[in-house]
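hey all, quick one before standup. I had two proteins in the batch that finished overnight and I want to keep them in one place so we stop losing track of which output belongs to which input. First protein below, input sequence then structure tokens straight from the run.
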Amino acid sequence: MSASKRLLHFVKHRSLWTHVRRNVTTWSPVGAAFNAKAQRRLKIFEKKGGLFGVPELSNPSGFQVATKAALKNTERLLDKACSCSPGVETVESFDQLSDDLCKVADLADFVKVAHPDPEFREAAEKTCIEIGTVVEKLNTNVELCQSLKKLLDNPDIMAQLDPDTRRVAELFMFDFEISGIHLDDELRKKAVALHVKLLDLNNEFLVGSHMPNRIARSAIPEHLHRQFASEGSFIQVGGLHADSPDDLVREVAYRIYLYPNADLMGCLEELLKCRYKLAKLVGYESYGHRALKGTMAKTPETVMSFLQLLTDKLSDRTAKDFKMMGDMKKKLNPRNSELMPWDHPYLSGVLRAERYNIEPSLYSPYLSLGACMEGLNNLFTQLYGVSLMSEHPSAGEVWSEDVRKVAVVHETEGLLGYVYCDFFHRPDKPHQDCHFTIRGGRWCRETGQYQLPVVVLMLSLPHPTKSAPTLLTPGMMENLFHEMGHAMHSMLGRTRYQHVTGTRCATDFAEVPSILMEYFATDYRVLSQFARHYETGQPLPESMVARLCESKKVCGAADTQLQIFYAVLDQIYHGKPQNRSTTDILKEMQQKFYGLPYTPNTAWQLRFSHLIGYGAKYYSYLMSRAVASMVWKQCFVQDPLNRDMGERYRREMLGHGGAKEPMLMVEGMLQRRPTTEDFVDALVSELNPNFETFIMDSES
């Protein structure tokens, strides 16, 4: 066959995917880059740099070099912060001191959990410990605190400071106070000792909460053995198997995985006692009162009022949801029809699928990763004048060949920062979707330039195949939009100080930008711009989007009530000591705020790992969702691509990071201060029939 005939034969018989890939490249480069399989580039003549472009981090030993340099610089900045005259320079010195340590510690925090090389992970872990120890010492450095106190105690100088500088000064003082800086020497030593003890207890509980439980193989029916991991004569249970269609598998997993571990129970009880002691020592009524200072809610009383009112307003709907699940269980298993906690996740999924036919495989062909990134690019361009531009990382800059580097560029302001997209599954990678700040943005007086923020988004998506790009389920697509909401908060929050950059804000506000993105992700006017079949180019039908949106309301009250139960439990655990076990508290709260029966000899609280990172703040997700819902309905539901509203959203909410009180940002966006009742009504109204991210009737 001649060369020309071979070429003609290839063109005629190449796969449709190849054809579509060629067409897809007519999109913006970012869409094409994410639909292409990662190519290993030959870098023979390219000098290897370090992770994130940090020269020292070309090998694990570089962490020690970077740590030493940061600590040496800390000494210089400490002298400067302690000796400068009270004023703006004081706050700038504190922020620079914080930034120098954070740039190493934050990077190490990411590397210790995500790098595939155990030597890198180990080196990063050592850096985290070393920097953490220094931070603890700085938080109890009396001379450093006095320098800040001189500024805060001088009303004339404080009056001359801009609002951001005043707030950052107050936030730094808050960090001192919660470390016990204002106490006498003896009490301050107690506070430091409690801090150190809590670091160990937190780590012990976090590790223990994810450990599997095991049971003798002979203790469970033989036909179930293959459902679980084996370890000699034992069966290992490492999760709840909540999606299993077999009632018995779910029940066995629930009873074994949640079986109490006496050592871990002791760890949790001691952890909660130490948190309470520390809070009391530094002047708070409880750990909850200390944790909620500076948040939207402000006090545990407000949180409990919010959760109780939400429970009351949902009660009838929750009862109906549980009845629906109970009827479904009777239908599926007439001999064992009592609705139990292990049934809720599975049966709610069955009811959604039965009613709306939302099988993920029907949606995935329309949601290639490249298409979704193209959709995000279009959305950000229309709302903020921002583009996502794919860049080739330098040799040694990324920790895995499939990590993509994206520059975020504004049409007039230029380069805003970088997002490293670590999207694909790999062995030993944490199975969680999250956003990491690697470097915060801040204005650098010393260089006269803005320090660009750098973040990582971590997902666990399937790799592309020879015949298809990575295809996302609707859940994966929403998670991508959610995490990108955090990234844009980091990029668009051009704060003067890194201490309050981007997502460094109150926990119950931090999730608002990410949850708001979920509304855009399920609005047909947004989806229609990018969701099309990777083989045929056909758009995702509007009716499929409508089904997806309506399906989320099925059992929505019961799902929300479960989150309320978790949030209440978190509040009670972090309130005043109850003089009863954490399990007794759980039994009572489960009966009062959930409704499905407690299972004897289980301790769900020992799997509640959020108690570590979100202690007394688990309610934050519900409150953030309420705010996001209000912002969506008031500002974007009429036109989700409105540039004026996008600019207002950036100006009032995204642009401040944590430099403005969270409720003031919400008030600025909504043009009114919402009440607890408003938050509750926003969440309840989402469950009403026909509340859509688009209004179908008006368009038909």
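OK second protein, same deal, sequence then tokens:
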Amino acid sequence: MPRNDDVRFTSCSIKLPPLGHNSSITFFSKLQFTSQFLINSLMKPQKPLNFNFNLKKKSITNFFTNFPKPPNLLSSFRFHPPLKSSLLCSASLALSDGGNAESDLSGSTNQTVLKSPSQTQITSRDEERVLISEVWVRNKDGDELERKDLESEAKNALKASRPNSALTVRDVQEDVHRIIASGYFASCMPVAVDTRDGIRLVFQVEPNQEFQGLVCEGANVLPSKFIEDAFRDGYGKVVNIRRLDDVINSINGWYMERGLFGMVSGIEILSGGIIRLQVSEAEVNNMTIRFLDRTGEPTVGKTRPETILRQLTTKKGQVYSMLQGKRDVDTLLTMGIMEDVSIIPQPAGDSNKIDLTLNIVERKSGGGISAGGGISSGITSGPLAGLIGSCAIYHKNLFGKNQKLNVSLERGQIDSIFRINYTDPWIEGDDTRTSRSIMIQNSRTPGTLVHGNQPDSNSFTIGRVTAGIEYSRPFRPKWNGTLGLIFQRAGAHDDKGNPVIRDFYSSPLTASGNTHDDMLLAKLETVYTGSGDPGSSMFAFNMDQGIPVWPEWLVFNRVNARARKGLVLGPACLRLSLSGGHVVGNFPPHEAFAIGGTNSVRGYEEGAVGSGRSCAIGCGEVSFPLTGPVEGVIFADYGTDLGSGSIVPGDPAGARLKPGSGYGYGLGIRVDSPLGPLRLEYAFNDQRTGRFHFGVGLRN
């Protein structure tokens, strides 16, 4: 939250001193409150932060108000007129032995004062009724009010006090409270004058001043415009306490909505109609880390404190925000090395600041061995079609810096991938959260995506040896960019492992004519990721550029993009997606865009629609809840190579009579799982052929 440097910070609150019987009472008195008392009153030590956002307003309010208050402190600034108190007004009934109806009210001398019920025990005398002939509203000197609208406000507030009515002391006191409760008056004194026509009841009132200016202190993050707009309607008007209460609530609400530790701590009306508003904001002083074991006992941590602290967006000197704190907790948990994280705010000594303690419970081990299995959509035939087994040795917190090393092997009926990957999620000394990834990989994938099954029942695979380095960083909220340099050597091999340069139709399998193609690719990628809600959006753009370091190395440019948008339609959700790409230059045929399959055009086998230099694929689907985590889905897909299949080297699509375009439609079910949505779908293509598809995650 940016600071508002136009306003300086002080801290105080409303405090009303004890009053004597003859005190002249005003609604606002001198503010006497120190910032240390505010912090001590606002905070409960050792209470972990609650990030339940449905209760965030209640959490902040409790955090500020759950402590015993000093005598007479108005910790809540809502005006509540007491029914049995002389705190805000004098509720005694003065009898003046005057007889002259026009006598000066302030000059009456022989007065008999009846104490209000709040000052003595109620007796039968207090309940005696006095017949009132007239009811006047005057200023504190007994003269008529200059503003008749204020006189009307006071008279309209009266309920029991009417001409020719019999009143008790309690009736008068309650009407005094009603006048004060109207919000326009700082004090009210009821005086009874004995005249020739009977007893006249005079309410001597002191109106509030007219609002002429505002001084706001302590609002470091509260926008000046918000304060000005809140008070703008009151300029030149008599200050109304109820209106002030609404303004204070709106300011406190601004802090609550943003989860900020701030509130109005005091307000005072100065001479000349100037309102001084005191705002108290709890700034972060120090942040410390405490490592705990699973039983809550202190222990020695494996992660370096600076590695944890630099992940936090909460910084020293900022006004602490619960929302920002929750995001910081989520960020620490996504590092993958923490089991539990909590933030505890505490008063920072004698200052108006807070110290934050991060309680960290690390995972038992930063490394280990894992094994699993999966399905490859590229395998469409065979008794164990598509099944893949995998194992990995990994470490998630190298050197206590959250650096990750992963060595993995995946093996299927035809597919195999051996990969060594090292990732530094945040390069030390970098302020832009740049990550670095170094990868070495040896993979083998089926060549059927582009070249299909061979008529002679012989099959071949595409082998790739890849090594590269990539740098990635966020450059805007929800946007991430990646730059990389990748070397790749790729070639085709038969089922015995021998190099192959042509397929059954004599189409070339390499661009150079050699047993393998070498290329050095410069990679540029940008990704926009929405909130992940059903109605969110996603966009990704990728470009690879071949760099001719050696004359025989391939030079080509490949771009592709994909976008997805969700629309919530009552209980259902409509998802629209579009993807496409194009290649220019001398590229291997097996790098052509393969169209058709589980993540392309359903109803077709993988790559059965076409393979071209260009492609465009669209999809629309409607999902709807069935029961629990199970959803139903209806979908339709369309894909085309835009007539570019024939200009792929060797025209593998034309040799296999691929149509070049096609559509599919069908229905399926999805089940939420820790791996993502599990999809089982059945689709028909435009050839009236049906096919089952199984996948994990949303369709690309």
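Flagging for whoever picks this up: The two ends are 37 Å apart (CA to CA). The first strand starts at residue 93 and ends at 99.
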